Fold this protein.
Amino acid sequence: MGLISFLGFTLLVAGIAYWSTRGTDENSADGYFLGGRSLTAGVIAGSLLLTNLSTEQIVGLNGQAYTEGLLVMAWETLAAIAMVLTAIFLLPRYLKGGLTTVPQFLARRYDTMTKTIASGLFLSGYVVVLLPIVLYSGAVAFSSMFDLPELLGVSKTASLWICVWSIGIIGSIYAVFGGLKAVAVSDSINAIGLLIGGVMIPFFGLAFIGDGSITAGISILMEANPEKFTSMGDNSASVPFSTIFTGMILVQMFYWGTNQAIIQRALGAKNLVEGQKGLILASVFKILGPLILVVPGIVAYHIFQGALDNPDEAYPRLVAKVLPASMVGFFAAVLFGAILSSFNSALNSSVTLFGVDIYKEYINKEASERQIVKAGKTFGIILAILAMFIAPAIANAPDGLFGYLQKINGCYTIPIFTIIIVGYTTKFVPAIAAKIAVFLGAVLYSISVLGIEPYMRAKALADAEVSGITNAASLKAIEAAAYPHFLHVMAILFTANVIIMLIIGKLKPRTEEYVQVYTEQVDITPWKYVNQFGIAVSVIVIGIYVYFA
């Protein structure tokens, strides 16, 4: 019964997405890559939320909450402020320039080579990190949820491969052959299901704790586990409170403001008003994100009394424990939608980056829009296949899925964000400054986090053991103090790169002042209430932190 309801809901979403895209010209660049620049606020908000949510977050972040509690909500609540800043500061500039990809701005502000380097960093990050992680985490979730090894009579490894390729092929069909509008429409439908299904889990969990009463469950949970309900993490936490004011806000601004896989939804807005409304609406729902991505982990900690050896098992074990059997199929379909969304969104963005920034620029300068789209689709198929082969190898990733994703992304997060911010806030910083900043940012971060940090932490633990220190809490504190948190490293490198760029701009400025040209592709009259709603969202986020301090 669960499998039937899963298939039924999934096919329904696919049918609606196909019906909705029949009138869009998928052979034009705008039609295929940006949904004909016709996306409205609701579609943008839904697609943003679903692109962001997937199993690596639902499972991984709840696993961290199981271990550490509410303090990991920083990954969710601070995103709301970043979305507000994007709506007010970045989106008007993007739409004024009629951008299809973020690297297009880099070509206009600096030069073509800078754009190509940025596109290459994005693409390498997608194929090596994001796409394989989404496929792998989704495969693990579904293999366990439906007990596929027993159902199909295969090994766990074979079941994993089957799920990886099934998700990859279906996601590729959406992204490669449907274009952005098919992705965005299906995302919007699934967003409703995910919000309903995702919120059901903590409520069923709380009712389980409170013997049928949700309010009683909340009281019992908070009274029994007060240490799990603090927003302030110490230096040994995965998210120390101090990082909120350094690397965390930079990561959030990059992710929501410059990451092609995310911001492409807003770039497809029919006008600035719809784009800003979509971002603000998504930020409101993002404040509720901890209900889906944090609270279930704390509920699982209470129910299982912290007895799970692998924290990443917390969420699927909780679902199996508290969700009525009749609803498992629907929840699986919603989860499947979240997995597909993250996969096909990143893939669609990769297709866009290749077609517009690489194929048109270097392979066929005279290419028609139809040829660009065709080349992008071919590249997307190749990229998807590579990701499907790489995905199973993620099983051996250090620091777990969520930690691996956040750390490795820093290799391109800060370099690209640096040159975009400097590009928009200055007029004479030259292209050579951007190239140096990207190179230094990527290389120094990689050396720091992948080389120096592991060595320093291992050395500190070894010295502690020699000194006879065996207490787990003490060892954790010693390890944390051995090297700055990777979010602090991001902030340090961001500041250093900005200073370097400004110095180069002073010593060797551009010969001509950069002036952004309005392409008039969409109306860029701002939404008159964007500042008021943006301030309200920010105040709510600050209030949440103060309340749980």
User: Anything to note?
Assistant: The chain has a mean pLDDT of 82.
